[in-house]
Amino acid sequence: MRWQGRRGSENIEDRRRMGAGRAGGLGLGGVVLVLLVGYFFGVDVTPLLNGTGLSGGGAIQSDVELTEADQRAAEFVSVTLADTEEIWSGIFRDELGATYEPVTLVLFKQVTQSPCGNASGATGPFYCPLDKKVYLDTDFFAALSQRMGAGGDFAAAYVVAHEVAHHVQDELGILGKTTALRQQSSEAESNAISVRVELQADCFSGLWARHAHEAFGTLEKGDIAEAMNAAEKIGDDTLMRNAGRRPMPDSFTHGTSEQRQRWFATGFESGSLQACDTFAAANL
């Protein structure tokens, strides 16, 4: 992915030096496992990680050291976010005759607070509609690559674009309507609505990728394959199998690997908002 040397976003809230409690008591391997389970199954496991110390120590940190990798990741996120701002502003203007209000992205390390609850490695990247911010610990990119086998710049860009897509849904009024509907539904029905929300965000991510390449020449050979690989690795069925569980479609909240890949491809190939209407699709 070509991203170096381009404009970064001003809508970054950097909390990485604010300090946070360290997770522990489980050993490093146990912590990683808990974090991944928490992220991929949508469970906030922060209470399991607080207050016990990581294998012999874990006081509250007041001064977080930022590595070269942290800085590079922050620059990458800033450029990717700037790209989403330009692309979605253009789509809103040209297709909807509306103004896009960019999302703020909060960078943090370890733990921070959001109106939607604790943000941590346990929750993974997420969009909070209560303050209209995306929360991202850039260490997640390492976990995505090393633990999930979904490496590459464009796999990381897909993650950012997916969370920004939830803000787009919020701006379009989709997120508010589906949240209200889910609150009135059974668990299985709520999960089914969630799948359509998430697959639309995947489609919007593909749409963004298409427009970003046309506008900035972003894509390099293999980039789309990186995004498709990431979508495959985080499908509900794949995650459940890898966790030693039998896939149960009624419990899916994000969609299968095949669905996530197909809807990303739909957005990329069509470049159209209308093509991403997962709520009108008879078959996902």
Description of the structure:
The protein has one domain (12-276). The protein has helices at residues 27-40, 46-49, 68-96, 139-146, 153-171, 174-183, 187-216, 223-233, 236-242, 257-270; strands at 12-14, 104-108, 111-114, 117-120, 126-128, 133-137. It is α/β, with parallel strands linked by helices and 284 residues long. Helix 3 (68-96) crosses helix 7, helix 6 packs antiparallel against helix 7 and helix 7 (187-216) runs parallel beside helix 10. The two termini are 29 Å apart. The strands form 2 sheets. Strands 1-2-6-5 form a 4-stranded mixed sheet. A two-stranded antiparallel ribbon has the order 3-4. 51% of the residues lie in helices and 8% in strands. The protein has 10 helices and 6 strands; from the N terminus they run βαααβββββααααααα. The model is unreliable at 21-62 (pLDDT under 50).
Helix content: 40-55%
| First and last CA, distance | 29 Å
What would the principal axes of the Cα set say about the shape? Answer: globular
Question: Averaged pLDDT, please?
Answer: 82
Structural class: alpha/beta
What sequence of helices (H) and strands (E) makes up the elements? Answer: EHHHEEEEEHHHHHHH
Q: What Rg, in angstroms, do the CA atoms define? A: 18 Å
Write the layout of secondary structure elements.
Blueprint: E1 12-14, H1 27-40, H2 46-49, H3 68-96, E2 104-108, E3 111-114, E4 117-120, E5 126-128, E6 133-137, H4 139-146, H5 153-171, H6 174-183, H7 187-216, H8 223-233, H9 236-242, H10 257-270
Parallel strand pairs: 1-2, 2-6
Antiparallel strand pairs: 3-4, 5-6
Helix pairs in contact: 3-5, 3-7, 5-7, 5-8, 6-7, 7-10, 8-10
